[in-house]
Amino acid sequence: MDNCDNMSLKMNPFAKNISEPSHPFIKWAGGKSRLISQIKNFIPTEFNNYFEPFVGSGALFFYIVRSFKMKRNCYAHLSDINAELINVYKIIKDNLTDLIKELQYNEIEYHKNPRRFYYKLREETFRFNHIQQAARFITLNKTCYNGLYRVNKKGLFNVPIGNYTNPKICDIENLTRVNKIINLTKVNFETYDYQHIITKIKENDFIYFDPPYHPLNETSKFTNYTSHGFDYNQQKRLANFFYELDKRKCKILLSNSDTPFVRDLYSSFSQNIISLSALRSINSNTEKRKNHSELIIKNF
Hints:
- By secondary structure, the chain is of the alpha/beta class.
- The protein has helices at residues 3-11, 15-19, 36-39, 59-66, 83-94, 96-112, 114-123, 130-143, 172-183, 232-247, 260-265, and strands spanning 50-52, 76-80, 187-191, 206-209, 251-257, 273-279, 291-298.
- It has 11 helices and 7 strands.
- Helix 4 links the parallel strand 1 (50-52) and strand 2.
């Protein structure tokens, strides 16, 4: 911890709680926990508010807060088109005790008969209140195949069960730390399309985009994050939005796969396209989960 961090701990009585070790409370295909050690080098040294429109597991947000990269009087705006995901964040913030009770129940029932409980829970979508919905989301996430979130054309979650011996569905210690971080930070959680942030962003705000990646090949199309998918046209739409935010003098960081298509979309920023080495975690064959190249694209 550097001198700046030590000073923050002395000045802010809550800083110790924020800096306690924690990790994202869900597994997330494409999550950035493994890449933080590389991505942190590209976080701007100064910025106002922080926006993460494809929040997922929020790995970069939690790093920024714990390392005191965000000014105490600034807001973090975390959003996603996935309403179930945003509901989980809100429940962890406001109803943690009740959420833990539901997760403990799910954990007990799961271990009685994992396969039967998983598919029963996956098919039940309408009878839950918001707390139970959050518990369902976390339970399925912790026990599904590779933490993948995928829906069919009807918008229904359809990922098969994963092969786990003893999954930790209710991680009380980490959930408690996440609850502290969220409640000691000025953070908003909202459900909307990423372009909605245009109504909120201002000059010198920092935006991190971590969209569904452009597929490396025809067999790696894990793009059905919503019932509408995230195809070539969606990638072009996002790139156009990137250029629009650049004109507004925002600081932007974007992650995506290293493909000629992606490089071409952001060719105007070719001097600020950086290749990172990452482990591909979504593959039914563990032998193929080897290092591959991802891109970081920035405008500053």
